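Progress report, Aim 2. The chain analyzed during this reporting quarter is listed below.
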Amino acid sequence: MWGVVFGLAAVLTLAVLLLPVARRSNIPYTVLLAVAGIALGFAAQHLGVGAVEAAHAPVEHGGAHGGGPIWMQIAEAIGGLRITSDVILFLFLPALVFESAMSLDLRKLMADMRSILFLAVVGVLISTAIVGLSIWAISGMALVLCLLLGAILSATDPVAVIALFKDLNAPKRLTVLVEGESLFNDATAIVISSIFIAMLAEGTSPDVAASALDFLVVFLGGVAVGVVVARPAIWLMRAFRRDTMIILTLTVTLPFVAFVAAEHFLHVSGVMAVVAAGLTIGSIGRRMIPPQVFVEVEHAWHQLGFWATSLIFMLVGLAIPRMLGPHVLDYVDDIVIVVVAATAARAFILYVLLPLLDRFGAQQKVSLGYQTIMFWGGLRGAVSLALALIVLETQAIPTEGRAFVGVLVTSYVLFTLLFQATTIHAVMRVFGLDKLSPADQALRDRSVASALNSVSAELDRFAEFHDFDEAERAAALKRFETAAEEAQRKSAAGDLSPDDWVRTGLAMALAQERQMYLTRFGEGFTTTTQLQDALARLDDIVDELKDGPFNWREAALKGVAYRKRFRMALEAQRNFGITRPLATLLSRRLGVLEFIRQVLREQKEKGIGEIEALLPLNARERFQQYFDERFNIVSQNAEALAVQYPDYAAALHRRDLALAGLRLEEDAYDRLLDQSIIGPEIHGDLVKRLESAGASEGRLPPLKLKLNTADLVARVPFFDELDKGRQKRIARLLKTRLFAPGDRIITRGEIGDEMFFIADGAVRVMLDDREVTLGTGDFFGEIALITDQPRNADVEALGFSTLLALKRRDFARFVKRHPDLRDKIRKIAAERVNGGVAIDL
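Predicted structure tokens for the chain:
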């Protein structure tokens, strides 16, 4: 046992020491790890250490570590380490896949999902056929074995690709495309390979229909398992959202639970389960916990990912000499065919088939530079070797076939790692992908100039305060001032127009707004539901700006638009009198709009100035106008609801004030702790009391819609002269309808079936030559009931408006029972028709 522990510690130590070498030599870290592992493997073979059979023992078993010189025992400890397919698939792969999936931006991933799924599914199948048939034509091996080889070699490896692109600092979209493809096609390759291995072991012939069905079940089943397993974890994270240790532990156990549940118990794709779980935690989980806690979790996962990457590439390198075996030169012709066929298949998919999707409008355009990086950066690594190890460990497959797969897979993995990975930097330079975009470069230069000017001012105050020598002070300042002037000169020489700068400033403002949402959530100023709604509305603005021509007002209006669920709740109230869903959604809308308004006001006071300082003078005024326009739109929508429901708005304000007071009180206790005025015990007791108080202060009363028809009738001036009995009888004929701002109430040309009394709010009547505004106490729509003519005007709600609707079938009874009201209606209708206003409603 000591040999395994010492061997792993020695390998990890060596791996860490290679990191600065990789940085200085500009050689990918993973390549150095693999080379070091291979060197150790050949050295172990030369020394006769750790000789094993083709079916390797697991890494935890190690070799026989007996006595002898210390150096020999150390060599045996390292050379005796073994890695199997189960160790790669069940230990290393879930951790590395989960780390990558959790850090991926789900919205960016979904934007390119068609391309990614095409490459991950269709691309892998096509590549499997091309590689398999090519090697079958010249090798004389069984077709199923050759197709198995093609499947193993057709999927880019997430472990190798993700590790490489972390070092490259590639553009964000390119990273999403490459990492997304590697995560999804890895699952495809494992599923297809498993089907072919089962055929070889059982001696069955290929069944295309059954295999396709198996693939769909395994692939989609893995996704379902990942989402289902992640949900309880998210619930627990929400319950313990301030406890970093609990949340970190949940995220560490989740990928392994998801993988084992899918792969072992349910026999579906474990990789897809981990991918789905990671994306769920990254997109939903991060909105459930304070941002500072999630940052700590991400840092911990980066460390775990680094250790896993270091160990797996070293251990795989150790295994490569054994997998190549002594007769590798006998397979030179086959190796050449595999390299040519796999490379040609990848080129055909990326340069021929992928552009066809773009031509038919089925995906976002992928540039030639991106295609080339995806082509050359499609590395193979640990997963390919793990699948080859499964073949080596399957005794039902003939020895010749196992050796054939082991040698060819290992050789192609070495080709991609030693040749493609080491030249990817040069390929990126050819297409200029190693540089910042013009917009980013201009922003970088202005950021440097602004920062250096601030540093100069602060340094000058520091030198003056401490009474430094004038000459020393001037010399120190000159360096920063010169650098600031140079950065300013570069930014001025850029080719960005004022419009480009305005868009850049707005993008920065939206990113800053997003971070302020998360910060206030972490401080306890909003709920999880409000945070998710606010972030979704912010994403709507970003999408609107990205997908169409620049129209800031339309984008800002998207941020306050009514959701589909709200529209459904409105229809439920209007048609069936169901009010609870609408009341819930109205309270959420008022809460989130008030939250957004507070953030924008705070941003206007504290954050926008820093962004404006980075913009040229000819862009600042318009940027400020756009920001003010968004603030006004949010404020108007929030105020419209607050006026309609003042009691709930007042309760919101009381809650926000109480939470702000608790937060300030906690800050005061933190300062006392930092100054050692109080100890941790007292501080902990005080914070615990504040958390209890915060839970009670955060509760809000339910929003009351006030849609009781009898009460509304009593409030309408048209009915105010009637006694209570007549008001109640009239209320039985009327139905309450609630309309949101901008809702169309009546459409020109339709056959009128009801008239409306305005109980609260205002509407706009749009005629051919003018617009008329009607308010509380007015009515409209009566002429269509009197004359049976189609409506000749459009009517829409100006604000949240509560209307009382009188159906045509009840109109006759209404005017018959209440002749005084009938006369009022006829008089006003006659004035409208004969007076030229002609509200033919």
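The mean pLDDT is 84. The chain has five domains: 2-79, 85-430, 438-494, 499-644, 709-834. These observations will guide the mutagenesis work planned for the next reporting period.
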